[in-house]
Write a structure and sequence with these properties.
The protein is an all-alpha fold. The chain is built from 4 helices and no strands. This is Ubiquitin.
C-alpha cells in the first residue's frame, strides 16, 4: 500500500510538466497556447494561482521524500 501511495504522489508531482511533455511528444503547441491565454489574465489573478501551484508542488515532493524516509 505504501508503494502505491508513493507512486501516486510521484504522478501528482509530474502533473505540472504534462504540457511540456505533450508538446515534446506530439509536437503540439499546448504550452504556448496556455501561456497566451494566461498572459491576458490580470496580475491579481495570476499571482495567487501561481503561489498555490508552487506550494502544492513543493508539498507533493515533501510528502514523497517523507514516504521514502519511512520505507
Amino acid at each position: 500500500m505504501k508503494k502505491l501511495v508513493l507512486a501516486l504522489e510521484v504522478v501528482l508531482g509530474l502533473i505540472p510538466f504534462l504540457p511540456l511533455l505533450s508538446d515534446t511528444i506530439f509536437k503540439t503547441n499546448i504550452h504556448t497556447s496556455i501561456m497566451k491565454m494566461t498572459l491576458q489574465w490580470p496580475l491579481w489573478l495570476k499571482m495567487p494561482i501561481f503561489l498555490i501551484c508552487v506550494l502544492l508542488y513543493l508539498y507533493f515532493w515533501y510528502t514523497i521524500f517523507k514516504e521514502i524516509k519511512n520505507l
